[in-house]
Fold:
Amino acid sequence: MMKLIRPVVCSLAVAVTVAAPAFAALGGDTTSVQADLARMKGALRLTSTAVFTVHEITTDSGVVVREYVSPGDKVFAVSWRGPGIPDLRQMLGGYYGQFAQAASTTRGNHHHLAIERPGLVLQSSGHLRTFSGRAWAPDLLPQNFSVNDIN
Amino acid sequence: MRKFVALALIQLGFLAACGGGGGYGGGGGTPPPPPPTQTIATPGPPNVEKMTVDSGPSGVNAANTVYISVKVCAPGSTTMCQTIDHIEVDTGSIGLRILSEALTSVTLPPETDGTNPLAECVQFADGTSYGSLHMADITLPVSGEAAANVNVHIIGDPAYVASIPSNCPPGLQREDTVALFGANGILGVGPFTDDCNSTGPCPLPPAPPQSQNFIYYTCPTPSTCATTTATVAQQLANPVTLFPSPDNNGVIVELPAVGSAGATTVSGSLVFGIGTRTNNGLGTATVLLEDPFTGFITGTYKGTAYIDGYLDSGSNGNFFTDSSLTLCTSNANFYCPASTMSETATLKGTSAATLTANFSVANADMLFSTTGYTAFSNLGGTNGDAMGFDLGLPFFYGHNVFTAIEGNTVSGNMGPFFAY
Structure:
């Protein structure tokens, strides 16, 4: 069942182990925040398609963070899932200001929030003890990439 | 653009014909076909509380938010009490939380760990709320359901929010006022017994940038709070579990159908107990057993199985992913299709039983353009969880939705489960 909703990554991707862990905020590159993986005390899994690479960090507290990296080594999307929302300042990097401004003027509800600005889309969901969300920079999306693949 | 205008005119026509709607499930437009046998229990003792969908506390302008009143008293007192209206009824969270701003005429003693007062940071999808924990005797004024010595989260008490701990997730909006929270408080009556961990202490938060949706603090002073593990007894409990038997194994949210143009207000009933009295039986409802750890069921929609499925009175729309539906430009939370779309999903729990869920998605901008309307049966929006399928309050209109609490068995069905 778990696989049904992630067909694209799973069917197109090849999982490999990487020696050089890297994690980065939206808009960054994969060499910019090497320290994050160590800070999150997580395990890294890398999956690649012809269009993008996913860096997935799973921590022992059950948080899964993914960053979607373009062939040009730009993080164009991030997602998270676990018992809380990760620090969005760190997840969104230079895009955080846009989020904060938009969030202050957008009424969500306690279980869903979505903001859409020309440079940034963010969707957050939380139910009981599980939180999930995703954010992307429309300008950075690779060609032929569907945002439905951010999961 | 032309289509939008035409539809708006059609809607106005309905409104005029229906005199503006309102009242008990009233509203304009063509009502959906009624479910076969919806019977809404009459509010009153011993186990039926009155609920109302309206615009919320002054200045909030809520949509699809169902509220209740709660009377809180200092423990043991019958005079140091206050009845607080506009407490949101949420089957998607756990525990009673009240905004400090709304608690004006009674002082509640702190909940302590034996030495220091406790405080809590709670995360919602759209923000975080922080404040100290207190003790109260609570009574629901219409049904008379009551529980003593309940842990209550008081959100936004000034002494505490003056120094919010740095690990109370930064980067999210603070929701420590009534206007930002959208209610005077929230009554979390979901399928779990406790907010953070039903079977043991609430863990300390992980290292940043990770986070945790519940963080407890011990506070020698309001400005020197330190993270602590909270025992099950110290955590916020599901208030339903504290009510006397036989009303403590779950709730039924009973709201009448709402027509396609919406309604000004809606009244309904929150029934306590499932399968324990003549007014709370499962009847012909189908039970969907939830995952015991997440509370999720599976919703299959347009051929895709969404494994993070749930029914949630605290969601003001039906939230799911459908790239064929246009998002509103004014508010990306909601869909704004050019014409109303009829949708179907199949819900399934961990057993073989399935339920068909029919719902529709109308243009949210047009729904919201009707001044004074607060209840909409056809509001839909996107879901930040790519695996999420959330049937929120729009789906509750016209259905009696059961939410059974973990560990309770009704007719051989072990909670947590949904049924309708």
Q: What stands out?
A: The helical segments of chain A are 7-12, 35-40, 88-92, 96-103. The radius of gyration of chain A is 15 Å. The first strand of chain A starts at residue 14 and ends at 16.
